Amino acid sequence: GAVVSQHPSWVICKSGTSVKIECRSLDFQATTMFWYRQFPKQSLMLMATSNEGSKATYEQGVEKDKFLINHASLTLSTLTVTSAHPEDSSFYICSASDRGGQETQYFGPGTRLLVL
Amino acid sequence: AQRVTQPEKLLSVFKGAPVELKCNYSYSGSPELFWYVQYSRQRLQLLLRHISRESIKGFTADLNKGETSFHLKKPFAQEEDSAMYYCALLGFQKLVFGTGTRLLVSP
After folding, report:
1. What count of other Cβ atoms lies within 10 Å of the Cβ of residue B17?
2. For the segment A77-100, what is each residue's pLDDT rounded down to a tens digit?
3. Which of A2, A10, A89, B26 has a Cα-to-Cα distance from A110 of 20 to 30 A?
């Protein structure tokens, strides 16, 4: 089946630093990748949708300059949390679709970010 | 705006008992609904979708447009069903998740 990986699985960083999270589709080409954020005991919230070779589409309330998304190839998307602050601490999950739509998404295992 | 409500944070049952995980939605258009499951230390995965009208691992879910519900049911719960279950709605090109229900099946 379709597999999506994320790296790193967890990261601890100091406030003010930038953190990059990678999302890879291992055995299929992902025309579209999605980035979600999940706070403890809350649901997944879509942050942005990225299509290979074009700019990401951000959801309302998500700062695009804060959360930089690059979808450089059909198998890789990256999320960079710039100048991270403690309130950015969360669980970040990516998913990928091989059909371009949201109806078929394969999820990565998530990345836990802790900003001190 | 679309919204998915899962009123129960935790549902605890004994093995062999029937299970019903509730999901209600709010959406002005024609919804497409899903149930996702996340087992301990595993990633989120699709369990079933309403348009497939299939039974997966003994689970079924019927879309009730009159009650705007998509409850997940299983007649006899198994210990391996213990997991976090999320109901999700695809609308306006966006997948929106409920807050999830943790199902705990005890022996």
Report:
1. 13
2. 999 999 999 999 999 999 998 765
3. B26
Instruction: Write out chain A residues lying below 8 Å of B42, CB-based.
Output: 109
- CA separation for the pair A42, B43 (Å, rounded): 16
Token pair for A25: 């589709």
Q: Provide the token pair at A108.
A: 């990565």
**Residue from B97, B53, B75 nearest A105 by CA:** B97
Q: Which residue of B has its CA nearest to A92?
A: B43
End-to-end CA distance of chain B: 41
Q: Which residues of B touch A93 (CB under 8 A)?
A: 44
pLDDT exceeds 90 at position A30 = no
**pLDDT class for B50, splitting at 50, 70, 90?**
confident
End-to-end CA gap in chain A: 37
SS (H, E, C) chain B: CCEEECCCCEEEEECCCCEEECCEEECCCCCEEEEEEECCCCCCEEEEECCCCCCECCEEECCECCCCECCEEECCCCHHHCEEEEEEEEECCEEEECCCEEEEEEC
Q: Which of B47, B42, B45, B44 is nearest to B59 (CA)?
A: B47
Hey, what amino acid is at A74? L
Q: Are the C-beta atoms of B22 and B62 separated by less than 8 Å?
A: no
- Residue A34 sits at the chain B interface (C-beta within 8 Å): yes
Contact A38, A32 (CB under 8 A): no
- Burial-class residue B82 by CB neighbours within 10 Å (0-12, 13-18, 19+): middle
